[in-house]
Amino acid sequence: MLKIGLTGGIGSGKSLVADFFAQWGAAVIDTDLIAHQLTQPGGAAMPSIRQAFGDVVISPDGALNRAAMRELVFADSAQRTRLEAIIHPLIASETERQAASAAGCYQVFVVPLLVESGRWRSKVDRICVVDCEPETQIARVQSRSGLTPEVIGRIMSAQATRAARLAVADDVVDNGASVTFSQLKQRALELHNSWCSFSEKVCVA
Question: Is 150 exposed, middle or buried, given 0-12, 13-18 or 19+ CB atoms closer than 10 A?
C-alpha cells in the first residue's frame, strides 16, 4: 500500500487536509492524536511521565497538564529530551500497530515532527507538506488556542524551518492566508487522485 508522510508546521492546516484524505478513503494514522491518547487520563505514558516529572505536570483529572509541560520543555532542552524518550517509543509502537491493520486506498501518516525526527524518509513513499507563511501560522494558532505570539514562536522555533520542510517535500499543498477552503480541498483532491493512480487499490473520491 502507498504510504504518505503528511507534515507541516503548527497552524498549517495539516489536520484539515488529513481529514479530506480520510473522507476520500485513505487510512489516516495521526501521531499527534496518538500522543494525546497516550497522555489522557489512564494513558499509557502517564505513569512514566509522573515518575519522571512529578505531579506538577499532571492535571487534577490525571491527564498531562500541557501548559505546564510546555513551559518546562521549552525552558530546558534536557527536559524535552527526557519527555521524548518516554513518549516517542510509545507513539512508534502504536503507529505500527494501527498501520498493520489499517485498510484504505493508501495510508497517510500525520507526523508534525516528520522532518525533525529524521526517521520517516525510509518509512514512507512520499512526503507531503502543508505549507503556509509563518505569519499565517501564528495568526491561526492564536485564534484557535489563545496562546500568545511569544509562546507560539517558541513552539515554531523548536520545529523545522519552512525551508527545511519544503526541501524534503515530494508534494506540497499551499494553504497560505489567501487560500479558500474550496481551493484547499481541490488541491488536496488533485493529490488524492494522483496518489490513487500509484496505489494498488482504486479509490473513488
Answer: exposed
User: Is 127 strand, coil or helix?
Assistant: strand
Instruction: Tell me the per-residue pLDDT of 120-147, one tens digit each, with 9 for 90 and over.
Output: 889 999 999 999 999 999 999 999 888 8
> Which domains are delineated in the chain?
1-26+105-205 (3.40.50.300), 35-103 (no CATH)
Residue whose entry in the numeric block shows the C-alpha cell 485498510: 103
- Decide: 136 and 156 in contact? Cβ < 8 Å: no
Distance CA 45, CA 48 (A): 6
Residue 202 above 70 pLDDT? no
Q: Give first-to-last CA distance, the chain, whole Å.
A: 18
Q: What DSSP assignment string belongs to 104-118?
A: SSSEEEE-TTHHHHS
Helix (H, G, I), strand (E, B) or coil at 89: helix
**CA–CA separation, 30 vs 139, rounded Å?**
23
- Spatial contact of 91 and 38, defined as CB atoms under 8 Å apart: yes
Q: What is the DSSP string of 160-175?
A: PPHHHHHHH-SEEEE-
**Average pLDDT along the chain:** 92
